[in-house]
Amino acid sequence: MENTVLFSGEEFAKLKTDLVLYQCALNNMKTRVETLLNEFIHLKEYNPIEHVKSRLKSPESIADKLHKRQFALTAENARTQLTDIAGIRCICSYAKDIKTLAEVLTRQPDIKILKKRDYVTNPKKSGYRSYHLIIEVPIYLTDVTERLPVEVQIRTQAMDFWASLEHKVRYKFNDEMPDAITRNLWECAEKIAELDKEMFQIQDVANLTRQTAMPRRETPPL
Ligand code: 0O2
Q1: 145 membership: H or E segment, kind and range
Q2: Which atom of ligand 1 is closest in space to residue 124's alpha carbon?
Q3: 49-102 pLDDT, tens per residue?
Q4: Residue 216 has pLDDT above 70, yes or no
Q5: How far is the CA of 222 from the centre of ligand 1 (A)?
Q6: Half-sphere exposure in the Cβ direction for 202 (13 Å, CA)
Q7: How many helices and strands (H and E) does the chain possess?
Q8: Which of 23, 192, 46, 210 is nearest to 123 (CA)?
């Protein structure tokens, strides 16, 4: 591991204070997603969310990222240059669920969308697919309201499977992957996208078959 860069004692202390607020921002976003999940499960007929993961970036990986981008290791730079200190990942059942969830989240009136990246419609050169949002959430403190960014990544299980394995492979090569492996991973990403489509078609056919075979239920289950 090439992780040798560290914050000075003073900057580290400031960063630790900021991380408390980032944890609050992350909790705030987790609550929003959990609320929707409960609604989908108990009050709607369909739940598009398979599971949710979240993480707060460690001081070491904040230092690494600032160093890679050639910024001085200060708490202020962490706050002004990085938007992924707090991150949440929502794993959806099907690709069509991704935009539905993104739309529902971005409609909330007290948040601000700082950035949208649709790598599902426009995959990255690597083959990476996911929908990214940087959402600024309000944190109500005793005297002030802080507004902090949370990175929200929305993807299917298949996209998640690819991204986590590709990340491990890339890490092994320290970001200098041989062309043949890059090509191979891209091909896997294409196959995975095909699988996503096929699985959706299967459930679509299953739904249609069920609808024609069974009478419609009047009240949703609790
Ligand atoms: P880590 O270690 O996961 O945090 P931009 O500012 O839009 O030009 P930025 O900020 O890199 O570029 O945003 P982008 O491209 O939307 O990527 C944000 C995160 O998405 C990355 O964070 C990764 O987690 C993930 N990601 C993006 N591209 C790829 C890819 O090709 N493969 C995999 N596995 N993940 C990807 P970090 O900070 O790069 O890394």
Answers
A1: strand 145-156
A2: 31
A3: 999 999 999 999 999 999 999 999 999 999 999 999 999 999 999 999 999 999
A4: no
A5: 39
A6: 8
A7: 6, 5
A8: 192
Phi-psi category of 175—alpha, beta or left, where left has phi over 0 and alpha has psi -120 to 50?
left
Q: Cα(19)–Cα(110) distance, rounded to whole angstroms? A: 22
Ligand 1 pocket by C-beta < 6 Å: which residues?
84, 117, 124, 126, 128, 132, 163, 166-167
Radius of gyration of the chain (CA): 20
Asked if residue 125 lies in contact with residue 166, where contact means CB atoms within 8 angstroms, the answer is no
Residue type, 20: V
Q: Retrieve residue 113's tokens.
A: 């969308």
Over the stretch 140-174, which tens digit does the pLDDT of each residue have? 999 999 999 999 999 999 999 999 999 999 989 98
89-139 pLDDT, tens digit each? 999 999 999 999 999 999 999 999 999 999 999 999 999 999 999 999 999
Six token digits for residue 56: 């707060």
∠ at Cα 45 (40, 50), nearest 5°? 45
Q: Which two tokens stand for residue 40?
A: 């989908």
Largest distance between two CA atoms of the chain:
68
Give the pTM. Answer: 0.91
DSSP annotation of 215 reads: P
